[in-house]
Amino acid sequence: MSDHPADPATDTFVAHRNLLFTVAYEMLGSAADAEDVLQETWLRWVKVDLEQVRDHRAYLVRITTRQALNRLRTMKRRKEAYVGPWLPEPLLTAPDVAENVELAESVSMAMMLVLETLSPTERAVFVLREAFDVGYDEIAAAVDKSPAAVRQIAHRARRHVDARRPRQAVTPGQTRAALESFRRALETGDPQELLEVLAPDIVLMSDGGGIKQAAPRPIIGADKVARFMIGGLGKNKLPLSVSPTMVNGSPALLVHVDGEIDGVMAISLEDARITGLYYVRNPEKLNRVEAETPLTLR
């Protein structure tokens, strides 16, 4: 037994911390900013009179949502000044996350990019309603809208997202198979094997943040993507290795060049071929991956 008395505020916050982090991450696309939001949520939570709060979980979600909305406005200015395409910060996830299909889809790179096209309020409403099944009344309190307005926003956001979702569901096994073919082609530098796994209209986005070399704009088409990947990774003549991992609820690849993490590749898939390739190389977005990657994969 602990010598210290239980602290209800701390116990409640710890119990809901993973939920709050995921809410903030899905709204922001940045684990670092999500952690800052959690810190801000905690500072406000410890000042609350818990006896006056009927539903602690809902109240914490409300604080987190409001702080994330505030941060989204600052991030908008950062993204406008960002060098090249902006991709979400990759988040290493446990294999069992993929078993929760709804959660795995909601944090996938492809879905996070779709969420980027929503307004801040639409994004908050969509995340709370679709990913976490929060009630309309609770969402209304979090975003300072009426429940009726929130229902309309949810409908509009869902229609927007559905129009941009992949046309068919893909199993983790299909994703792993495509990634394995892709990995072999990268390591051998075989363009024909690479073309066999890429969809003709594939879109590649690479994020170097002006720190690492990356394509200044999306690359479209299998031939162009194959040339970019083989040429870009092969021209430095340093040892290259590609390891499987789990990122944002889906199988992905961790790329090492000369023993150092060079980037994370996530994909979207349709008809067993890769339609979207998301390559995060910005070192500032890889700090968390670096810290959480087992030594055996480095």
- Percent in strands: 15-25%
Alpha-carbon distance between the two ends: 39 Å
Largest sheet: 6 strands, mixed
Structural class by SSE content:
alpha+beta
**Average of the residue pLDDT scores:** 89
Globular, elongated, flat, extended or rod-shaped: what is the shape?
globular
Helix coverage percent: 40-55%
Compressed to H and E, one letter per element, the order equals HHHHHHHHHHEEHEEEEH
Flag low-confidence runs: none
In total, the number of strands is 6
Strands of the biggest beta sheet: in what spatial order? Answer: 2-1-6-5-4-3
Strand and helix layout:
Layout lengths: L7 H21 L2 H15 L10 H25 L20 H6 L2 H7 L4 H12 L4 H8 L3 H16 L9 H17 L2 H7 E10 L11 E2 L1 H13 L5 E8 L2 E8 L2 E11 L2 E8 L6 H6 L6
Parallel strand pairs: 1-6
Antiparallel strand pairs: 1-2, 3-4, 4-5, 5-6
Helix pairs in contact: 1-2, 1-3, 2-3, 3-7, 6-8, 7-8, 9-10
